[in-house]
Amino acid sequence: MTGSITRAAVVGGGYMGGGIAATIAGAGVPCVLIDIDAATSQRRVGELLAESRDWVDKGLLDAAEAEVVAENLIAGVSIDESLAGVGFIIEAVPEVLELKHSTLARVSAAAHPQAIIASNTSTLPIGTLAESVTGPERFLGCHWMNPSRLIPGVEIIPSDRTVESATATATDFHRQVGKRPTTISDVPAFIANRLQHALFAEALKLVDEGVATPEVVDEVSRNSFGYRLAAFGPFEVADMAGLDVYQACLQTESGAYGDRFASTPLLEERVDAGDLGLKSGNGITPLASHDPQRVSAIRNQYFRGLTALLDSIEGLEDLRSTPADSVPTTAKDDTSA
Ligand SMILES: NC(=O)c1ccc[n+]([C@@H]2O[C@H](COP(=O)([O-])OP(=O)(O)OC[C@H]3O[C@@H](n4cnc5c(N)ncnc54)[C@H](O)[C@@H]3O)[C@@H](O)[C@H]2O)c1
Predict the structure, then answer these.
(1) Residue boundaries of the structural domains of the chain
(2) Given this model, what pLDDT does residue 324 score?
(3) Which end of the chain is more exposed for a tag (fewer CB within 10 A), N or C?
């Protein structure tokens, strides 16, 4: 279960799986897309190639990369007939437990015994899905984000039965196709969705309590803390703000909203030790030990660049209002899990 992958497959070539297959193909790795039947797989490949051409026209993709996608994206016939020579398989069928189980059972029976098998599930425990896999030691979660061709992060989720070499190969493979993989523990909703949905649940409460409209919650989120998150994670943000400041904020908030805002031993111990983040030279993350002036210079450069980028995106602000000629659409929202 080591060595570079020379052929991959994606089972379930829908919204996520299609983007995953196109990404892999665009990195020069032949990738077989397998949907419910050969005709559907063929249709999806056609749609993905058309999307690539459209992206070239819009300046989102190099013409050369679109050609690489076209050379390497292959329409499969079926799970049973199309996995020969495939070293890495990503399952991306709908989030229905029974369907995941039956698909993974078929995939693991048809795949080479050394092939790594991954599920792109958003929330289902990998340990549970592993029950239907023949050779569960080569099975793990690989949670890509939507839109899968553009978001760099992928959560790599070994179960307690996954061998280390499978995790290492999955990590190397995702780097090989241009992603930024992070290995995490197998807990419900993993890390990205747990954080994202904690924010969403709190946003729902704000609206439900009559504090703000959804539009106001979104505007405040975008224009304030949301601005930081592409460059700095929540712990780096806390180290910049001051851990004592965050401790005081959580005290007020837990008094008002209850235990979901409670501090934890990690924060209490750091503050008790006088490790308050950037201002004391020690905190939770390595960022706290850097020269504060250097950190602010880099941070300011990022914010300036982000403001310029946002200002340059044509039509973004128009999305905040409903067009007069609006028609109902079934298109999926790009901001979901
Ligand atoms: N949509 C998101 O934002 C998102 C983000 C991250 C992860 N995910 C996860 O990715 C997975 C797929 O989600 P999606 O949004 O791409 O769904 P989707 O409905 O767009 O695509 C699913 C595809 O699977 C195909 N399919 C169904 N049964 C099949 C079978 N037996 N064999 C082969 N193909 C089959 C369907 O025809 C369809 O093309 C889910 O587990 C979902 O939770 C989704």
Answers:
(1) 8-183, 224-313
(2) 80
(3) C
